[in-house]
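Journal club prep — side note

Before the paper discussion, L.F. wants everyone to see what a predicted structure for a comparable chain looks like in token form. Sequence:
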Amino acid sequence: MAEYIDRTQLEPDTEWSDYDDGFVSYSQSQIRSMPKADVVERSKVDKAIEEIEKIDLIVHDGINHYYKDGEEVITEVLEILKRNIGE
């Protein structure tokens, strides 16, 4: 399984370039010491979005109302997210 880091937190610290007049790459020790990021696969997010878009909302005067059959739709949305993406 792949591990992901936030590379925006890295500082170039190795491999000097006269052309760029500075370091141009990151050391392995810096990369290894970065905290790992929690990542959700894009396909899982897309699947959740598809399901959420299928929820029938009550439309009154051109406005979506977030209640359906007396229940808040947010409960259904959260269940879809948990099922597809996890807690």
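L.F.'s comment for the group: The mean pLDDT is 83. Keep this in mind when we get to the figures.
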